[in-house]
User: Which sequence fits this backbone?
């Protein structure tokens, strides 16, 4: 997912550069017949708009079905899920338990005792695999299934004061 | 009631015009000075993250706070200068109120600087409740209150200015809908291709900023009450919604205020008209709602938010990119294509701004998809996309306008070697800064961290070099503004 998004961005920015470069290199010679230019390019613009509209609708529908945020009203208990209660404080995490198994979904019940924090799960290569906000007065349910065992890092992803960057913990996945 | 010329422009006395020009130049110079200082602050933060400079975490987060609030403030005051310069040509605006807002702004700046560097406030510019009240001893409630009061005062100043905008627009056009071109869009009046883009854009900015600043005032006042009466505890999610509604609207509106310079100046430089028409009105009408409705894309990892709100945030984020990709940016490409344009520094910067805005849309709308946001939210990807918008979209509009005012508008000033040096240093530095942020985000590097893991230090070091180029470019632009702007007459 991350590398795909990055690649789309680089290609997209590259295409925009190419279009602007094309227009700059074709800007010095003056064509006095501007109405003909606008007539031609207004026609292209209509198709460009329709393309963006269709793209937006298709991507919106596909990317929100199923909805990427777990149902917060559902109870994720029983044998199907492992449950981890996450309490966040300035500037430490309490996870109960702090060891889970790979291959079975984990429900993290994330809340905060003081200010807003961000519960970010990083794998051993320091790639962010899942996150949710930790907010006073609310419990966010985050569902994640770990593919691989290992020592995962929990980093704070919402600025929470002077020791925000040392609010780090470890989650063991067996 | 004012007299108007045959072409629909307002006539002012020479004294009023002289005073107005001084006011606009003051806004530009003050804004550029703050921008330069904030770029030095950004450079400092990148150098610290890159282990080339060592400072305490407390000072780092104070610098981070001043960087955020300073850039937003400078963007607001400078873009307002550009907007006011053009809008007053079509509706009768008050010089006194324009100056009043400027002085209130400076007062707010003093309070904010005092709260940060004397009171040690380091709660970020977003003052996200309840962090200002719970600092674990890093700063006092008084310092947090001073910061929020400073922001509140600045907001009040802008509300006063927008009241004058609203009064003047209503006096000339009768209704905001007519000023926005809606009567033409919906066929109640014939399409007037000369209806000023400055009026359409200003009406949009007036509406959204009035709502945004009002929401900001509510969250600031509730935060202030909480600081002194901790038993008053507003709901954290409500506060977050209000904060991001306010923050998103005010910073987003700056680019819509500044783009007036593109609509007004590219036609001058190309000798071609930028006609307002139905697609133009439709785009700006949609922007009114999209700028206000898009803010839930900041709250996608708050799972307590209703799903429909997150879908609205995602869809409107995509929708917000369409006007620039179909109307404004596209229009700029058409007007420049085979125009014989003379590439002055002003023209180069204004055209660059269209590129920056357009290209910056791509990482922004991707991150605003809920599924993508799960692994990009609050990583360096976020400053990546907004530095694209601000460094390569907004600032080139503002600096391009300053070059116009400094003499290029009348062809009196020729591009100098230092202008070209400034332009290319800035261009390369700004592009590199944004791309390094995006690369860091794609490597999951979190934003707002004073100290980086060794694996991330390389990104920060390249970012530091990029930031130094931005600082050099901006310094040259500021020197040019200080040398040329004060004595420059108003371009005809």
Assistant:
């Amino acid at each position: 997912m991350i590398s795909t998004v990055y690649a789309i961005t680089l290609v997209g920015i590259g295409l925009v550069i190419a279009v602007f470069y094309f227009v700059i290199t074709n800007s010095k010679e003056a064509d006095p017949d501007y109405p003909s230019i606008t007539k031609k390019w207004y026609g292209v613009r209509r198709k460009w708009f329709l393309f963006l509209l269709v793209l937006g609708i298709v991507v919106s529908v596909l990317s929100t079905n199923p909805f990427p945020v777990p149902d917060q009203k559902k109870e994720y208990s029983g044998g199907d899920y492992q449950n981890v209660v996450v309490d966040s404080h300035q500037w430490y995490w309490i996870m109960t338990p702090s060891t889970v198994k790979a291959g079975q979904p984990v429900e993290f019940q994330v809340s905060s005792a003081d200010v807003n924090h961000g519960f970010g799960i990083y794998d051993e290569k320091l790639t962010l695999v899942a996150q949710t906000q930790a907010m006073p007065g609310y419990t966010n349910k985050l569902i994640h299934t770990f593919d691989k065992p290992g020592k995962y890092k929990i980093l704070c992803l919402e600025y929470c004061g002077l020791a925000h960057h040392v609010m780090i913990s470890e989650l063991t996945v067996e | 009631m004012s007299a108007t010329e045959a072409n629909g422009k307002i006539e002012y006395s020479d004294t009023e015009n002289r005073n107005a020009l001084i006011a606009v130049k003051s806004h530009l110079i003050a804004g550029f000075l703050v921008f330069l200082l904030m770029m030095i602050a950004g450079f400092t933060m990148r150098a610290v993250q890159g282990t080339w400079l060592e400072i305490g975490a407390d000072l780092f987060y104070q610098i981070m706070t001043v960087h955020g609030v300073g850039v937003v403030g400078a963007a607001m005051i400078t873009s307002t200068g550009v907007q006011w310069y053009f809008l007053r040509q079509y509706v009768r605006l008050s010089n006194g109120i324009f100056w009043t807002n400027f002085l209130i702004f400076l007062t707010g700046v003093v309070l904010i600087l005092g709260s940060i560097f004397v009171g040690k406030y380091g709660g970020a510019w977003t003052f996200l409740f309840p962090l200002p009240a719970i600092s674990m001893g890093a700063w006092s409630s008084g310092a947090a209150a001073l910061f929020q009061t400073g922001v509140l005062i600045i907001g009040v100043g802008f509300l006063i200015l927008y009241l004058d905008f609203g009064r003047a627009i209503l006096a000339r056009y009768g209704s905001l809908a007519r000023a926005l071109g809606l009567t033409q869009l919906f066929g109640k009046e014939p399409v007037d291709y000369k209806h000023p883009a400055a009026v359409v854009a200003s009406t949009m900015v007036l509406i959204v900023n009035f709502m945004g600043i009002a929401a900001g005032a509510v969250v600031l006042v509730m935060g202030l009450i909480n600081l002194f009466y901790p038993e008053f505890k507003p709901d954290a999610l409500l506060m977050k919604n209000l904060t991001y509604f306010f923050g998103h609207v005010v910073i987003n509106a700056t680019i819509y205020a500044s783009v007036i310079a593109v609509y007004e100046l590219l036609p001058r430089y190309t000798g071609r008209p930028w006609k307002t028409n139905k697609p133009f009105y439709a785009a700006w009408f949609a922007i009114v709602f999209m700028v206000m409705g898009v803010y839930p894309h900041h709250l996608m990892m708050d799972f307590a938010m209703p799903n429909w709100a997150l879908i609205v945030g995602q869809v409107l984020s995509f929708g917000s990119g369409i006007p620039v990709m179909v109307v404004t940016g596209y229009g700029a490409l058409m007007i420049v294509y085979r125009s014989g344009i003379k590439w002055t520094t002003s023209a180069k910067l204004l055209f660059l701004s269209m590129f920056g805005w357009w290209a910056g849309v791509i990482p922004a709308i991707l991150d605003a998809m809920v599924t993508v946001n799960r692994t990009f939210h609050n990583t360096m990807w976020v400053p990546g996309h907004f530095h694209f918008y601000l460094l390569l979209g907004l600032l080139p509009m503002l600096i391009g306008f300053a070059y116009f005012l400094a003499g290029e508008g009348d062809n009196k000033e020729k591009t100098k070697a230092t202008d070209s040096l400034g332009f290319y240093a800035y261009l390369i530095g700004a592009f590199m800064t944004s791309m390094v942020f995006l690369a860091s985000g794609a490597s999951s590097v979190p934003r707002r961290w004073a100290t980086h893991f060794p694996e991330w230090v390389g990104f920060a070091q390249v970012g530091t070099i990029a930031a130094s180029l931005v600082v050099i470019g901006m310094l040259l632009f500021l020197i040019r503004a200080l040398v040329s702007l004060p004595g420059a007459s108003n371009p005809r």
